[in-house]
Amino acid sequence: QVQLVESGGGLVQAGGSLRLSCAAFGRTCNSYTRGWFRQAPEKEREFVAGISWGGGSTYYADSVKGRFTISRNNAKNTVYLQLNSLKPEDTAVYYCAATHYSGTYYTQSSSSYDYWGQGTQVTVSS
Fold first, then answer.
1. Which end of the chain has fewer CB within 10 Å, C or N?
2. Strand, coil or helix: what is 99?
3. What's residue 28's pLDDT?
4. Nearest-CA neighbor of 76 among 24, 38, 122, 119?
5. Which residue, 3, 35, 5, 18, is CA-closest to 123?
6. What SS3 state is found at 32?
């Protein structure tokens, strides 16, 4: 089994930055595609960013492209999401996830993921 634990959320003003971390415990996730999703109140969970197991391929939702950066450190079994130029519409609970699938379609599809973290709240004030 794999347990994913997010950290780094908080309250920030518009234009500010945060860095989210997601550590994996239990079985290693180094061979897994890792992703970040978010869910705002009364909205469906949406894909934010994903990264292939080796880090060579990254994927972003259009709404965050150029502002967010996903990265991973397999030695630490951890994936990161750097959030810059934050906007109030970025306010949501952010979840990290891991899937044994790869490629654009599966990386962006929440139903592909095997493991999920508990989520961390990001609130951006205007």
1. N
2. strand
3. 79
4. 24
5. 18
6. coil
Rounded to 5 degrees, what are φ and ψ at 68?
-110, 150
Q: What is the pLDDT of residue 5?
A: 96
pLDDT by 10s per residue, the chain, length 126 = 899 999 999 999 999 999 999 999 987 778 899 999 999 999 999 999 999 999 999 999 999 999 999 999 999 999 999 999 999 999 999 999 999 999 999 999 999 999 999 999 999 999
**Length of the chain counted residue by residue:** 126
Q: Residue 71, class by beta-carbon neighbours within 10 Å (0-12 exposed, 13-18 middle, 19+ buried)?
A: middle
Which residues are within 8 A (CB) of 35 and not within 5 positions of it... i.e. 6 or more apart?
Answer: 47, 48, 49, 50, 51, 96, 97, 98, 99, 107, 108, 113
The pair of three-digit structure tokens given for residue 7, joined into one six-digit string: 């950290």
Contacts of 74 (CB under 8 A, 6+ apart): 30, 53, 55
